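Batch job 17 of 40 flagged for manual review because the log was empty.
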Amino acid sequence: MLPLLLFQLKYNILSAKHKKKSTNTVFLGLFQNSLLESLRLLNETVRRRRSILMEKSIISADYRLFLDFLKRTREDVGVTQNQIAKKLKITQSQVSKIERGERRLDFIELRRWLRALRIPVIDFVTGFETYLKKHSKTKSSQE
C-alpha cells in the first residue's frame, strides 16, 4: 500500500547529553485505509523516543540524595538561592537547575559552593556520607 500523504511532524525534545532543546522530525505515511494505524505508529514513535531520552537522563539514587543534601545544607545555613547565586556570580535559575539535577555540579564548583556557604569540604563530605548511609536503600551505595 503506497502512502496517500506523507507529512512531517516536528517536536521539541530535551537532549539528555547537551541539555539543549532540539527539533526531531518524524516522517509518517498516512495510508488510504489505515489512518488509525498511522496515528498509532506515530504515538509509538514519540513514546519510544521519550523513553530513550528518559533512560539517558535518569539521575542515580545517590546523586539525587547528594542534591537533596546540598539543598538542605544551603537551607540549614539560612541562605536562599538568590543569595548563593550572587556569591557565586551565577543566576538563581542556574542554582535551581543544579539543585534539581538538570545541571551537574563538578567538584570544583562544589568547592566554590561550599566556600560561599562557609562550610569546609571535609565537613560536607562527612555529613553527606552519614546522610547517604541513613537514606540509601542499596548496599552498594552504603559501602
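Reviewer: the log was empty due to a logging misconfiguration, but the result itself is present. The longest strand covers residues 3-14. Unflagging and moving on to job 18.
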